[in-house]
Sequence to fold (452 residues):
Amino acid sequence: MPESRCLQGIWSSPWIFIFAASGSAVGLGNIWKFPYVLGQNGGGAFLLVYCLCLLLVGLPVLMAEVALGRTVRSNPIDTVNDLSERHIVHSAWVIVPWLAGLSGFLVLAFYSVIAGWSLAYLERAISGDFMGISSSRASDMFTSLLATPAEMLLWHSVFMVLVIVTVGQSVTRGLSAVVKVLLPTLVISLGLMALYSVSVGDMPATLQFMFQWAWQDITFDVILAAVGMALFSLSVGMGAMFAYGAYINKRMSIARACSIVVGVDLLVALLAGLVIFPLVFAFQIDVEAGPSLTFVSLPIIFGNLIGGQFFASVFFLLLVVAALTSAISMLELFVAWLHEKFYIARFKAACLMGILAWFVGVAVLLSFNQWDTGVVFGLNFFELLDSITSLILLPIGAILLSVLVAWFIPHSMLQNEMITKRKSHFDLWYKVLKYISIPAMLVITFVGWIGV
Ligand code: PFF
Fold:
């Protein structure tokens, strides 16, 4: 293997990859985005379609992405270049990792702003600002944060510095140790919060909203939103898992590892829903409130809980760390590439990409106040970036990547990758990817775009 393709490290056990990949998957997408997208798309019908998307699209594509990363054990751009130099695929396929890297970069720009809100809320939690808070005060608190660009800028900058410093190190170092503690603590905290929320909130309305559905609720908009959410939540289509796949140990079953990641991701999203919706219904918060939903309902829980100041501080700290373990995987593709191809130190490469993303983030945070005007189709800059990434770039990235794996990478090469230990499971995955995931993504994305 040429020197430029040498890796920073290999995950020393399968569990380390599982923790790191779950760290990338579990983040603001589960706790902030999933509840509000569920709220905007009618609840139960969306959840049902979302679960199907995770199983039939998310999981097979995640496995394809990780397997591709492991074939050459290099950063995604060099992986595809290497495959084309060996005449395995056409050089035009290099568009796939570039597109994936671009999506990750654009997502990071707005992700950092939202993670900045979590930091702002961490500061409020430590100061005890949630104590005894009413629902109208909670909603005023969020509105006033959005109206203060200087504060958002501060926290967006703090978060981006954290991302740069962390990505500047080798990713395999330290990351899994953090996630190993973070994930169980996050699941336990959300579980306890869900119990509290269910006991004080409106459980019947929540159950009805989240778990009941009717055929007529399953519209194309719902399906498109579910596919976009599944890809975003599993961090696929942006090169993050592709980059992590390069660090996986050869003996490990990709199917097993990826199934665990999907399970953990769904569990955290469901728990977040069970925390938020009982309060949303009890306090008559608008379920379709959008991005503010989580940030208005969580303070109400903590504000009325004994020891709420402490629990709120711990929770928002966990949320920030979860956001950080996701954000670092968004930059990994370009940082690894700049480092391996041009020998630029990881820290310098992280600074370069992080600062560029920071600038785009500034435009995002202004779109919540000074610049809250429609840029295209009446969407402000944040909504535009969110829609472009979730509904266009992510599905296209995932489709191209899956087509590359399913139709162009030789079958024998994939089989050697130990995607699963059993041949029958490998065949099942291959068929599902080829004949279900790819056609489903194609139809849903294109029909969704033309707005049928
Ligand atoms: N999966 C992350 C979340 O749900 O918060 C978001 C994410 C991380 C998207 C990494 C894309 C990515 F490359």
Observations:
- Residues 24-25, 27-30, 104, 107, 232-233, 235, 238, 240, 326, 329-330 surround 4-fluoro-L-phenylalanine (CB under 6 Å).
- Residues 3-450 form a domain with the Amino acid/polyamine transporter I fold (CATH 1.20.1740.10).
